[in-house]
């Protein structure tokens, strides 16, 4: 038979209460040390997390935005967190974001390449920008729907067609003063032999599209009018010398061509049919208006365009004076711009 296990085996001595208390105190002290160590480590992690948060960017700003069919640069209203974009499209419910610049490491609710739906009563959408630290800012994007420019239509030239010329003295003084003369004649006498043939010419301007750079594009047709003559630019000097200036002064090419308008600097460029030639207006600025539209007293709309003369091969103002004397042909050879005034009902 097996021997029964004794509840008090031989040699076993019960632990002294002092020993038990000592073990308990050691255990308790150990827990305190572990707790203190845990708190210290947790604090270090917390401080490190706070330090990392300090390094993160809390800005949630939209700096720039560009949309498909946008004309010019988006107008920013920083105080109201709003951008207004002039848009030309046939589908305002599906306008693609071409480019967007936001704060570093921030995220937006809509990304480049995705589309915005402006097909609502206010023509607006909202984009939320969230910073790296979670700060959010809501931006309003407003679409200003494109309206075809006023200069689109069919125009008839008036007899107010001019050229602009300047004169510089031999010592270089006097430059920059503007003079204006008609294309046919005024107090100085006959300027262009066939200048007055332009006075009934017609110009038809049509709108085509807005290109990827935001420029407006279209076509034109420049016709001769009722007299069947498009007009030309030749002069005869006092010495009976014939000078053909058509290459220099024909800046609105006859027949069909195309035009481009840069809405940022308001500059129009006219091209002949194959774009081998081009003519630029001066950009509209604070000092001068080089193309403008205005309503006249008779209710007609008037369009004025000043185009740069191509001065290739032409003498300087002073050279023209020496060659041809103080007369009409010298002034013509000093021409820098040619202006056309047209009307439509």
Q: What does the model show?
A:
- The chain has 345 residues and is α+β, with helices and mostly antiparallel strands.
- 17% of the residues lie in helices and 36% in strands.
- The protein has 2 domains: 62-145, Immunoglobulin-like (Sandwich), CATH 2.60.40; 153-344.
- It is built from 4 helices and 23 strands.
- 25% of the residues are buried.
- The model is unreliable at 1-8 (pLDDT under 50).
What are the salient characteristics of this protein?
345 residues; alpha+beta; 2 domains; 11-stranded antiparallel sheet; 5-stranded mixed sheet; 4 helices; elongated; disordered N terminus
Could you give the order of the helices and strands? HEEEEEEEEEEEEEEEEEHEEEEEHHE
Largest beta-sheet details: 11 strands, antiparallel
Derived from helix and strand composition plus strand pairing, the structural class reads alpha+beta
What is the global morphology? Answer: elongated
Report how far the terminal alpha carbons are from each other. 132 Å
Mean pLDDT: 82
The share of residues in extended strands comes to: 35-45%
Which segments are poorly predicted (pLDDT under 50) over 5 or more consecutive residues?
Answer: 1-8
SS field, number of helical segments: 4
Radius of gyration: 40 Å
Report helical residue fraction: 10-25%
| Tally of DSSP β-strands | 23
Number of domains: 2
């Amino acid at each position: 038979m097996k021997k029964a296990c004794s509840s008090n085996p031989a040699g076993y001595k019960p632990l002294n209460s002092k020993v038990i208390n000592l073990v308990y105190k050691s255990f308790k002290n150990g827990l305190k040390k572990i707790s203190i160590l845990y708190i210290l480590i947790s604090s270090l992690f917390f401080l490190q997390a706070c330090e990392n948060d300090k390094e993160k960017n809390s800005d949630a700003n939209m700096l720039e935005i560009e949309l498909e069919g946008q004309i010019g640069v988006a107008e920013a209203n920083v105080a109201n967190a709003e951008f207004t974009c002039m848009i030309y499209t046939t589908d305002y419910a599906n306008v693609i974001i071409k480019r967007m610049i936001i704060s570093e490491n921030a995220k937006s609710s809509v990304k480049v390449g995705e589309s915005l739906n402006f097909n609502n009563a206010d023509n607006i959408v909202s984009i939320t920008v969230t910073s790296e630290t979670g700060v959010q800012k809501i931006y309003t994007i407003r679409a200003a729907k494109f309206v075809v420019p006023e200069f689109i239509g069919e125009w008839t030239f008036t007899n107010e067609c001019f050229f602009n010329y300047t004169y510089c003295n031999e010592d270089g003084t006097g430059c920059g003063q503007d003079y204006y003369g008609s294309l046919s004649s005024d107090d100085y006498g006959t300027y262009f032999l066939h200048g007055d043939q332009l006075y009934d010419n017609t110009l038809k301007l049509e709108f085509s599209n807005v290109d990827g750079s935001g420029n407006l594009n279209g076509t034109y047709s420049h016709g001769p009018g009722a007299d069947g003559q498009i007009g030309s630019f030749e002069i005869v000097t006092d010495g009976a010398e014939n000078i053909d200036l058509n290459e220099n002064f024909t800046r609105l090419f006859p027949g069909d061509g195309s035009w481009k308008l840069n809405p940022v600097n308001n500059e129009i460029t006219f091209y002949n049919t194959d774009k081998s030639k081009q003519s630029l207006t001066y950009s509209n600025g604070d000092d001068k208006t080089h193309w403008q539209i205005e309503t006249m007293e008779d209710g007609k709309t008037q369009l004025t365009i000043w185009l740069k003369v191509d001065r290739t091969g032409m003498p300087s103002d002073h050279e023209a004076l020496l060659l041809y004397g103080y007369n009409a042909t010298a002034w013509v050879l000093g021409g820098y711009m040619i202006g056309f005034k047209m009307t439509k009902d």
